[in-house]
Amino acid sequence: MRSLPEADPGVPDIRSPLRYLWWNAGRQAPSLLLGIGFGVLWWGVQALMPAVLGQGIQAVTAKDTSALIMWSAVLSGLGLVQAFSGIMRHRMAVYNWLAAAYRTVQLTSRQAARLGATLPKRLSTGEVVSVGNSDIAHIGGSIDILLRGSGAVVAIVTVTVILLSTSLPLGLLVLFGVPVMALAVWPLLRPLHLRQRRQRELTGELSTRAADIVAGLRVLRGVGGEQVFAQRYREESQEVRLAGVHVARVESVLEGAQIVLPGLLIAVVTGIGANVAVAGDIPTGQLVSFYLYAVFLIGPLRTLTEAADKLTKGHVAAGRVIRILSIRPEVTGGNGSSPGGVLRDSYSGVTLQPGSFTALAAATPDEAAAIADRLGRYTEGDVTFGPAELRTLPVDEVRARILVADNGARLFNGRLRDELDVRGEATDEDIHRALHAACATDIVEALPDRLDTEVAEAGREFSGGQQQRLRLARALLADPEVLILVEPTSAVDAHSEARIAERLAAARAGRTTLICTTSPLVLDRAQHVIHVEDGRVSAEGTHRQLLDCSPAYAATVTRGEN
Fold first, then answer.
1. What global pTM score does this model have?
2. Distance CA 96, CA 144 (A)
3. Which letter, b or e, does each residue of 32-41 get, where b requires 16 or more Cβ atoms within 10 Å of its Cβ?
């Protein structure tokens, strides 16, 4: 048993779709060449069988028992070789298909994680889903077909040589007839691929529409727009269905052509062979061989057409994959290092002292989010971390040391324990401490299997407030050097909010923490409060000091109420 995928998929060649496919094939060259060898053997053995069978018939006609036994033994041996090579060819085909597809999955997943917020800005949800649903399979198929396609070429060459050596007219007929058959179906491939591309585009747009509807379902219901968007989805889904019908029409013509055209070649080869046999130029056994060869050629011919189709689809799919792989993150890092220390955003003036428990109250939520993004290196900014500029540090190091947790984060499906302890290093005691600090212990105790309960997709079985508390526990378990929380208590009740504010300081003792909030309950428990107006620090102090000396701060935290 060989494990897939590889630990390291490598660095892809994304200069062009063809180069990417060639690189992908090169990464699995040994298994691919072995599979091609079995494919050639499988088709080659089949190509020899009609000739052996014809010799056996000749032995029967000549009443040559020893020759009949010999050719029967040869035919049995070929059958065993065909069975073995067929099993191995299929095994290698599946392996190569999976290897190519999984390698692409690894690359696209790694790129999506590296891009972060850049990806949805550059590509729609539907386009990304389309790559995962169909393009990866087409890339695997383009590698898989090389096995049978190579064998089909060898089989056709073998049959042509045999026919040429037996009958020059029949050999020439096959030699020129096969390319004609292939070229005859070629004009159907381009309209097929154009219609398939259109269908994929519509499917991607429909997936994007569905994702938008699901994400905003509560809002749509609140404003009465659910039926309007449902009607739009219904209309777009009908467009996708109609596009699928158009694809099926061309595919049906292509499938029919793959039967009819080789059938015509069979009829011509059989007719000429029969005339040659009647004229006495060839014996009966060879006539049977000619007929069997004509029937046999249907398989290789269809395989060549299938190869052209899959290779073209793989080329198109590779183009979409390298489109994702060629996107550069909006934020990049360097090779510098920093011992840590004061984290400062020069634009706003927000400064976080090491080990401090600080709250930031901004006049608008967007201002607080912008500062959090700069401090966490999610957007460009003039930020220093100790003696070093944050932009000079590797992005992976920044992500490990500075964690920004906002309400855009999601819970994934799986065991709750794994969702909270993403590094797999926390003990049960660590998890319970984080749950206690986030006031989420009651949530876990109400679950049937406690921490081993399976979480549904996006944690939909939890309310908004429960999800927020579980996300907070996950952030505390990560225990970063700097933790930046953006409105961590906006969806919980006042009683829970007060307890969370009280416990957070103890849970983060000795660690740098910034909470972006306008909640008086949280602000009152912070060691230091920063007030931001128009993107810049306007006042600093404790919550009660700022209430007394800063009317703007008081208006912000009391929502303008007196």
1. 0.65
2. 6
3. bebbbbbbbb
